[in-house]
Design brief:
The chain is an alpha/beta fold. It folds into 2 domains: 141 residues, Rossmann fold (3-Layer(aba) Sandwich), CATH 3.40.50.10130; 42 residues, no CATH class. Helices cover 50% and strands 16% of the residues. Strands 2-1-3-4-5-6 form a 6-stranded mixed sheet, sandwiched between helices. Helix 4 links the parallel strand 5 and strand 6. The N and C termini lie far apart (62 Å). The relative contact order is 0.12.
Length: 196
Amino acid sequence: MSEVSSARWPVIVNSSLYDSDMARQLQREHKIRYSDNTIKHTCIFPLSSIAFIIVPVNEATTVWPLKSPWKLDPALIERIERFVSVHCNGYLIVTASLFGQHEMTVFSSLQDRFLKTKLRLLPAHNASDCVQCMLTIAKATCKPASAIIKERMNVALANQLSEVAVIHILSMLGLNQHDILFQSSQKLSLHQVPSL
């Protein structure tokens, strides 16, 4: 995993992000290639087969701040739909310095709009948060790291569901299965609602 995290990864960044804080932060640790042929505000990590589209919350609606009749920007919706059709592992990062009521309303509307797609939504407060999200996901889904994480999750899940693990924990607490079942049944009988 240290090889994965210490290497300079190639990242394809849309030219619309050329002079942004996010691009500068990515450039410190990774090989950036700017492209005009990608969807606006996207970053693609080819080694992980992951793509991100970054949307500032104030650009997501036709009116900002939100007023009575508002809707999501149709041009943005079209761009996100194109992004979803091109990238199977896509993430939409919605950025706002503060996620107040208006921002959460827009975020929820985006979630509702793309609920039935494979697109995953993440909030981020600034460029640093955005870069951190992207790097964490990209590193976790890269081949050697993803295999290790998957193996550890399977072991943890197997141990969690194992009866032997439960019995071991109970014995560490000085109890056995019979004691737990007996105490649980007593508590349930105390909390039963009397019938009318």
